[in-house]
Amino acid sequence: MKFTDKFPLIGRHPVFAQSMLRVKDPERSRIFYEKQLGMQFLTRFDFPNLSFSLYFYACAEQNIPKGHLSQAETAKWLWNVQFPTLELTHNWGTEKDPDFQYHNGNEDPKGFVHLAFIVDDVNKAVEELESQGVPIIQRPIWSQIGKFAYISDPDGYWIQLISAEPGSREFYSKIPGVGNFQNRTILAETRLRIKDPQASRHFYEKGLGMTCVRYLEIPSSRLTLYYYAYTNSSIDRQNINSCENRTERWPIPRIVLQHLWESETDLFLSYHNGNTEPTGFGHIGLTVDDIYSACCRIQKAGYKIIRKPGPFQDVGEISFLSDPDGYWIELIQRNSFRTAKSAL
């Protein structure tokens, strides 16, 4: 197969599968994401030899496999779902340290901005969450983005709540993985700060095969937002061609790249990826058909491979790439495990 503009470097049919955040106390985070934001707990992976656990949540009703499945069998199911998940990483023992905290990306050094959820009524959502003790960062306001508010999760990460317009539920009911969704939130986007939009757009479009479904200039803040998503379905393509410029109707999940004007000319500016001290945001994850071939092409194109493709514990085969700003992109082997050795 010849990989041209039609086929991205990571192969055909990638899926934006997850966004990862590190959390101090998984029980505290469970209450927030499951009980207060209405997400569904999917599964948990434990790695005793490495002293950490992974917790997966989603804004979708899904038939979770029943019975006593092994961790490997559960992972095989998880890497084949078609909706986005939130991956929370807990390093054992952090919950016992009263002084321990993670970096939210919105204080120096800056990088990660927020996760965004679509809600039916942002005013009502903020009122309910505030009554439950959730910190409110920004009360509902109108802007070019729409009506939105900001709240804080237990680790201080910013969560944007975007108010949906009438009819949005009907639209999203047609999207795979969201069809039977009955909860009150939809995980819509992960936003990252970028320095050079030309370099980032080339990576996300040519390398990862995403489509820029919208860009929005905000002169008052000297910002441009680039909205990226996979547009594999006819629903997505029809929406891009016909829908008015309303954020909550664009394909989901989205990666939003936030560019501060003229930052690319600042020789001393760099953004923090969250994986060096101070740690916090971890990565975004994509599932692909063949991580070995994908990484070989990615490396030949001049992009950085952080972790060569190969097995990780008993949950599958993974690799890590770096985008132009140093953010980590995890590639996860979809379907059954491969036995071939790394092509790198």
UniProtKB/TrEMBL annotation:
Binding site for Zn(2+): Q18, E87, H114
Cofactor note: Binds 1 zinc ion per subunit. In the homodimer, two zinc ions are bound between subunits.
Metal-binding in keyword set: yes
GO molecular function, one term: metal ion binding
Cofactor: Zn(2+)
Gene3D superfamilies, A to Z: 2,3-Dihydroxybiphenyl 1,2-Dioxygenase, domain 1
Keywords recorded for this protein, A-Z: Lyase, Metal-binding, Zinc
Family as reported in the entry's similarity comment: Belongs to the glyoxalase I family.
Protein name: lactoylglutathione lyase
